């Protein structure tokens, strides 16, 4: 990184904040201040969508409705009841949270596209409600909303309010960036790539989907509160579904995965919208909202040719600096009690899995004892991976029982099983490619730490973060990858990615490690390295259950082997016994006739 | 409420529900084949109704010009793409011809026929010929190159298309609303119940189309190809079924159904350039009821939406939209309780 860039990165935010906060003190036209106020208000809403759409992979077309909740609450309580804006803010937030919880609770259990559809419906329903309620002024809305006073000083609707709007917007941006770089933030960033991996790390994905959706609603409601006092009146139009779509548009335009892209998207949208509203009717000859044509086309073009939005071109100047290694001597995370060598750890008792008419796993039984490496082998389609998914709770059992350390874990979810000390890797590597190796491994430490979203936003979680990173680095060092910890996980080759998954599983402090085909697709050298790591883990007393295809790899490593064929257990024994068995040979190579 | 009001409301609801069914079926069809949640489905309704209205008034409908421009644009994009791929002149020419033929013929026909005041049925057929090609053109211009993007990206694109189409609708049709004359001006009275010819027409056309669609899926090779694509795109592609071809076909069918819905609903309500959105979203409520996957449930959901709307407008007329769109929340709740593990696509 050149010194200029380092300087740019270091001082970009303070400089930007300073400029925006002293902006109203400069002799600029009032029109600029008004525009800048709008940009600040839009940014707040757009930032919520960045978290929701860009980071968590969900979306909402109903953000304008949440803005409306904040605005109408402020307007109604101030004009009719005469309550101070500083109180109505909290009421508006509360109402937004409640409505987000209801919409979220109903839709977030299902696949991602039901949320946007539900938000369209909810946005429309709310808009029609506003427009038809006598006490909300119907289509005329509510007029005469007082301005905000701060310790007796009237903030007005221009320069004074500008300071408040931008203070809130900048603080929100800082809080969101802090959140994304934290324990809950990593959980949120894991949502986009499916739920299986996150749940296997003990993360409740439903809970974090809810957190993000509620957070986006709160940001929108705050924007609405400011909007009401900025405009002095509210009516249903600015909270309609097309405004909700416009918020999504500016988010995509700015850069859907970037908190700072929200500022850019809001600014470009506001300024061009203003120009287009003058230019297009003059060009076409009649008045109308013709700017939607341009917005619609730009939205399609941006998603096609620059899916990361305009921030791609600005963000180049601010590459993320390498994480500062500040966790030397951090307090270690808590450890769970480990099983004794030879103690019965996992007992699989006649488990069965039926998919419709197909019996994928038929009454399979085996045991894993403390300190053992047990291999689960068999030809393709033998039911190994299904057995694995039954043990880890990814699939529900049709019949049978799985007992882990004396507790029946059959009916538990994969998250609950993970919390009891079974950790796993995946046949097809599941990771978050845009996070560094270190951050991916720190995800494993999730269930050993506690900091929540609010603590993260306020940066009260730093001590625990240091412990998490210290643990992640320790696990990476254990498998010989400490040198690569600052690389983006997506840039690694397959071999190191698989090792990283093992480090992530180790970071959960497991009592039993389940590896799903860890050697698949690895080159010879990489396989040797992996075998070395597993031997070392065994020497340290780790218990491992291994699903594997590669016979050489399994034979040299395991204490016991379970062989499966066509969903049933063919035999169980030491590697030598399995190798000598004619039945196993027949299963793999066929029989002579 | 007495029996006569009840029967009037029920009939009214079922009539509208039958129109929504055409939209819901299109939405389900497009989603299963292409994974696009096609928000602009309602725009075809407005396009259909307004095209017929302008033809009735003896004016050249804006759709004719719009179609020409869109087809020209698609042909141009494909031409440039073809040049980059070093296609021969012959292939470039046939590709362009294939893209342009129908739109140009339909548009010229409309421009020629508009002032001549042909019978309404001819104008209706002309309307269908004008609006149907939009489906494939929009698919090619907005969705085809992104066929493998996530459902979320496709959804945002479809919202972008909706935005553009509404604005263009205003440009091509103006802000004026139209109400079309009835196709069949008769009334049958059975006691308190009065059945209009238009209602009978709506039921008949919807029924015929559902039967035709069922036959298409069950009996024809192209229908089976669509079903195969809906079940597994990659598998279908490996069997030699073109997934872009399937996408174009499903979008064309959706445009045809949408335009037809516009013709059917035109005489019962005044249609503006932006009316399609709300009508289409009612189709969406029904499609969501069907989990965006089941045709029979989409039909049932549409009739339910129609009934909810007519009874809702009787009890609380200004809140009928609130009731219809609010109803999606209990529907989603029911779905999420019924099928909670419908994750990850």
Number of strands of chain B: 2
State the CATH architecture of the largest domain in chain A. Answer: 3-Layer(aba) Sandwich
Number of strands of chain A: 12
Oligomer: heterodimer
Largest interchain contact: A-B, 52 and 50 residues
Q: Low-confidence parts of chain B lasting 5 or more residues at pLDDT below 50?
A: none
* Order of neighbouring strands in the sheet with most strands of chain A: 8-9-10-5-11-12
Mean pLDDT of chain B: 88
Structural class of chain A: alpha/beta
Fill in the CATH topology of the largest domain in chain A.
Answer: Rossmann fold
CATH level-4 homologous superfamily of the largest domain in chain A: P-loop containing nucleotide triphosphate hydrolases
Largest sheet of chain A: 6 strands, mixed
The number of helices of chain B is 14
Q: Termini distance of chain B?
A: 47 Å
How is this fold's topology laid out?
The complex is a heterodimer of chains A (593) and B (345).
Chain A: H1 3-22, H2 30-55, H3 63-79, H4 85-107, H5 114-132, E1 149-150, E2 153-154, H6 159-180, H7 183-189, H8 196-200, H9 205-231, H10 241-254, H11 261-284, H12 291-305, H13 311-315, E3 344-355, E4 358-369, E5 373-377, H14 384-391, E6 399-404, E7 407-408, H15 414-419, E8 422-424, H16 437-442, H17 453-457, H18 462-478, H19 494-506, E9 512-516, H20 524-539, E10 544-547, H21 551-555, E11 560-565, E12 568-573, H22 575-580, H23 582-589
Parallel strand pairs in A: 5-10, 5-11, 8-9, 9-10
Antiparallel strand pairs in A: 1-2, 3-4, 3-6, 6-7, 11-12
Chain B: H1 3-34, H2 41-56, H3 62-84, H4 89-113, H5 120-143, H6 151-173, E1 187-190, E2 193-196, H7 197-219, H8 221-231, H9 233-238, H10 243-265, H11 275-289, H12 295-315, H13 320-326, H14 328-338
Antiparallel strand pairs in B: 1-2
Helix pairs in contact in B: 1-7, 1-8, 1-10, 1-11, 1-12, 2-5, 2-6, 2-10, 2-11, 3-4, 3-5, 3-6, 4-5, 5-10, 7-8, 8-10, 11-12, 12-13
């Amino acid at each position: 990184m050149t010194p200029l860039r380092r300087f740019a990165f270091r001082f970009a935010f303070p400089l930007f904040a300073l400029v925006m906060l002293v902006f109203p003190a400069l002799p600029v036209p009032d029109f600029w201040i008004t525009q800048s106020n709008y940009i600040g208000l839009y940014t707040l809403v757009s930032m919520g969508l960045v978290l929701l759409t860009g980071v968590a992979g969900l979306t909402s077309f109903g953000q304008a409705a949440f803005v409306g909740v904040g605005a109408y609450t402020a307007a109604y309580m101030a004009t009719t009841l005469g309550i101070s804006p500083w109180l109505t803010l909290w009421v508006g937030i509360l109402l937004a949270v409640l409505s987000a919880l209801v919409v979220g609770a109903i839709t977030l259990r299902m696949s991602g596209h039901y949320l946007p559809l539900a938000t369209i419906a909810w946005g429309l329903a709310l808009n029609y409600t506003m427009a038809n309620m006598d006490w909300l002024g119907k289509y005329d809305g509510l007029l005469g909303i007082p301005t905000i006073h701060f310790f007796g000083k009237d903030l007005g609707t221009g320069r004074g309010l500008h300071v408040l709007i931008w203070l809130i917007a900048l603080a929100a941006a800082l809080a969101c960036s802090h959140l994304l770089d934290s324990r809950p933030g990593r959980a949120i960033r894991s949502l986009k790539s499916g739920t299986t991996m996150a749940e296997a790390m003990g993360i409740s994905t439903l809970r974090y989907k809810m957190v993000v959706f509620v957070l986006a609603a709160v940001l929108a409601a705050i924007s609405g509160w400011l909007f009401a006092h900025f405009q002095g009146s509210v009516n249903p139009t600015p909270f309609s579904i097309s405004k909700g779509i416009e918020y999504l548009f500016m988010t995509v335009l700015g850069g859907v995965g970037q908190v700072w892209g929200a500022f850019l998207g809001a600014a470009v949208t506001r300024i061009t919208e203003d120009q287009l509203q003058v230019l297009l009717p003059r060009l076409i000859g009649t008045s109308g909202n013709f700017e939607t044509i341009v917005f619609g086309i730009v939205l399609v073009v941006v998603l096609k040719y620059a899916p990361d939005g305009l921030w791609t071109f600005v963000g180049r100047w601010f590459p993320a600096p390498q994480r500062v290694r500040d966790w030397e001597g951090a307090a270690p995370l808590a450890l769970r009690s480990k099983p004794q060598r030879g103690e019965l750890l996992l007992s699989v008792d006649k488990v069965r899995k039926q998919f419709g008419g197909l019996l994928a796993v038929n009454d399979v039984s085996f045991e894993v004892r403390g300190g053992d490496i047990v291999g689960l082998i068999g030809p393709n389609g033998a039911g190994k991976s299904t057995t694995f998914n039954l043990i880890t709770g990814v699939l529900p059992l049709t019949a049978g029982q799985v007992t882990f350390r004396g507790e029946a874990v059959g009916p538990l979810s994969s998250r609950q099983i993970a919390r009891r000390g079974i950790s796993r890797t995946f046949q097809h590597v599941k990771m978050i490619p845009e996070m560094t190796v270190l951050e991916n491994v720190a995800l494993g430490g999730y269930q050993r730490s506690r900091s929540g979203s609010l603590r993260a936003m306020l940066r009260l979680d730093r001590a625990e973060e240091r412990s998490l990173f210290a643990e992640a680095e320790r696990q990476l060092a254990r498998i010989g990858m400490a040198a690569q910890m600052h690389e983006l996980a997506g840039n690694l080759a397959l071999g190191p990615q698989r090792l990283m998954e093992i480090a992530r599983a180790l970071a959960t402090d497991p009592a039993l490690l389940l590896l799903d085909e860890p050697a698949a697709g690895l080159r010879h050298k990489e396989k040797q390295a992996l075998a070395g790591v597993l031997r070392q883990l065994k020497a340290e007393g780790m218990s491992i259950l291994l699903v594997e295809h590669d016979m050489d790899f399994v034979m040299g490593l395991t204490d016991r082997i379970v062989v499966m064929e066509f969903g049933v257990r063919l035999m169980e024994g030491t590697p030598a016994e399995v190798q000598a068995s004619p039945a196993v040979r027949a299963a793999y190579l066929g029989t002579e006739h | 409420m007495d029996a006569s009001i009840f029967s009037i409301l029920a009939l009214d609801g079922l009539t509208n529900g039958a129109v929504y069914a055409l939209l819901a079926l299109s939405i389900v069809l497009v989603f299963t084949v292409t994974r696009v949640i096609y928000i602009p489905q309602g725009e075809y309704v407005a396009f259909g109704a307004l095209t017929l209205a302008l033809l009735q008034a003896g004016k050249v409908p804006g759709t004719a010009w719009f179609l020409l421009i869109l087809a020209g644009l698609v042909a141009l994009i494909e031409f440039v793409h073809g040049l980059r791929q070093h296609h021969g002149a012959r292939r470039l020419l046939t590709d362009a011809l294939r893209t342009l033929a129908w739109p140009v013929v339909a548009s010229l026909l409309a421009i020629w026929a508009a002032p001549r005041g042909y019978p309404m049925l001819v104008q209706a057929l002309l309307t269908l010929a004008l609006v149907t090609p939009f489906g494939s053109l929009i698919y090619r211009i907005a969705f085809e190159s992104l066929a493998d993007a996530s459902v979320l990206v496709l959804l945002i694109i479809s919202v972008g298309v909706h935005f553009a189409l509404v604005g263009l609708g205003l440009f091509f049709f103006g802000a004026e609303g139209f109400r079309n004359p009835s196709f069949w001006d008769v009334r049958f009275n059975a006691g308190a119940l009065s059945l209009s010819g238009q209602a009978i027409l709506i039921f008949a056309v919807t029924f015929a189309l559902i039967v035709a669609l069922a036959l298409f899926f069950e009996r024809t090779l192209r229908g089976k190809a669509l079903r195969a694509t809906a079940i597994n795109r990659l598998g279908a592609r490996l069997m030699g079924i073109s997934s872009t071809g399937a996408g174009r076909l499903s979008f064309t069918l959706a445009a045809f159904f949408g335009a037809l819905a516009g013709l059917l609903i035109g005489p019962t309500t005044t249609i503006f350039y932006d009316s399609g959105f709300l009508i289409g979203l009612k189709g969406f409520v029904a499609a969501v009821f069907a989990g965006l996957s089941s045709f029979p449930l989409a039909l049932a959901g549409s009739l339910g939406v129609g009934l909810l709307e007519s009874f809702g407008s009787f009890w609380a007329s200004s809140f009928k939209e609130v009731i219809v769109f609010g109803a999606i929340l209990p529907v989603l709740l029911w779905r999420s309780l019924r099928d909670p593990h419908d994750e990850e696509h």
